[in-house]
Amino acid sequence: MDKITLGAVNTEPGSSLNYKTGSWRTMKPVLTPENCIFCNMCWEFCPDSAIEPADPKSKKPIRIDYDYCKGCGICVEECLANKNANLPNALEMVPEEK
Amino acid sequence: MGVKQVVKGNFATAVAAKLARVDVVPAYPITPSTLFPEQISQYVANGEMDAELLLTESEHSAMSAAIGASASGARVATSTASQGLKLMSEMLFIASGMRLPIVVAVGNRALSAPINIWCDHSDTMAERDSGWMQFYAESNQAALDLMLMAFKIAEDHRVLLPAMVGLDAFVLTHTMEGVDVPLQEEVDDFLPPYKPVYTLNVNNPMTFGSFGTPAHYMEFKYQQWEAMKSARKVIDEVFADFERKFGRKYEKVSEYRTDDAEIIFITMGSVSGTARAAVDRLRERGIKAGAAKIVVFRPFPLERIKDIAKKAEVLAVLDRAVSFGISGPVFTDIAGALTNEEEKPMLLDFIIGLGGRDITFRDFFEMAEIAKKTMKAGKVDDPVHWINLRKELLEGGA
């Protein structure tokens, strides 16, 4: 076990990478990849950089990084496919399996 | 030896900062400490001092800048008082928690309201739990000497805690007194450059002031507790080293005619000289009085207080501050120090000299009278007395 340092100095830069904050989640967004329209609104609005953006040229859909996604649901709210009544939903909130 | 100069207390602390080769002085002026940043700015402008003088927009910012500078490995000093220390208060706890050996000269001044610029100890007493060491000067010489020693004690790796040096508003800050100002080479020989354990450095990044969860917080506080404990030993070592090099003796508590004393006055700061002179006059009147001056208030000199308590029948504590709803703060600490002693003297607390009210021989004679009555009665009903209180000014009269 690591010993505590003098004055709470953390001598290891970037150590927050070791801490997967996605474990806080109770709900999670789930993507249906074939429904993604590559608009990247989810990536734009994600408050935690937990979305890897889509590439419209290669038609690569977005990807959700569940190591850091807190399940706030903002991506689901902002998803343009979800907002468009003529398109099938791309993102949906589902309860986290415990 | 140094050069004798006739100087004000604020000059003494400023010249100490210069002699200590302080790197950064973040400052915001406040009465009665303004002469400190004024003097430093002259030193920097004249090229006599190679320091960064940061004129901040508030004392909160001054202490924040001090924390940043100290974390980068600089030796840091500033000066403030009263409301200024209160505005720093939030950051004081951060400086001590981050274990940064910043030194602050505090021109001990009363707190508002009502607004008052004169001396008492309310400002530093209210910061006694901030994790800072506290030293109280009786003279301008002591202000200079304690400031120099504060760096050495604070920066010792067994301590690494910030320190404040209290000097009484106007009585010391603005009063001229002959002071032996040490030579630069003498101070260089006494005080080596600051060697930090960790420093902010872009080439070796670290996180300062990180998060402490319930699983770790207590251990950090315990480290501070232990550091304060080891400061007791380091203070004795540095006082002894200072005496060897400069010939001036300092003790955590200095005693005067206490050996056969029945009544011992406990004082801090500039009133200690008055106390010794009052003791001489009381002795002429056949009253066995003595005096003890607390120089180091944090860490509290528990063992010294226990030793002194063994000598007296009554300890008469002079408190230049008040903790409303109980007593003066020095009194509660002394009572705490003695609580498990089998034999202890009776304890009296005198709230005195608030807001710059003079403390005179007449006050000491009055306190001695109360102490004599207490000895005769053999018990204490109410230990707290307000001395030289103008009751006739109160609504409803005395």
CATH class of chain A: Alpha Beta
Oligomer: heterodimer
For the secondary structure, the number of strands of chain B is 15
Named at the architecture level, the CATH assignment of chain A is 2-Layer Sandwich
Number of helices of chain A: 3
Main interface: chain pair and counts: A-B, 11 and 18 residues
The outline of chain A comes out as elongated
Largest sheet of chain B: 6 strands, mixed
Strands in their spatial order, largest beta sheet of chain A: 1-4
- Helix amount of chain B: 25-40%
Helix/sheet category of chain B: alpha/beta
How many DSSP E strands of chain A? Answer: 4
In the CATH scheme, the class of the largest domain in chain B would be: Alpha Beta
Question: What this model shows, in words?
Answer:
With 98 residues, chain A is of the alpha+beta class. Chain A is built from three helices and four strands, in the order βαββααβ. In chain A, strands 1-4 form a two-stranded antiparallel sheet. The two termini of chain A are 27 Å apart. The relative contact order of chain A is 0.27. Chain B folds into two domains: 3-246, 3-Layer(aba) Sandwich (Rossmann fold), CATH 3.40.50.970; 253-393, 3-Layer(aba) Sandwich (Rossmann fold). Chain B contains twelve helices and 15 strands. Chain B has a six-stranded mixed sheet, sandwiched between helices. A five-stranded mixed sheet of chain B has the order 4-5-7-6-12, with helices on both faces. Chain A binds chain B through residues 4-13, 15, and chain B through 97-100, 160, 197-198, 205-210, 212, 216, 219-220, 223.
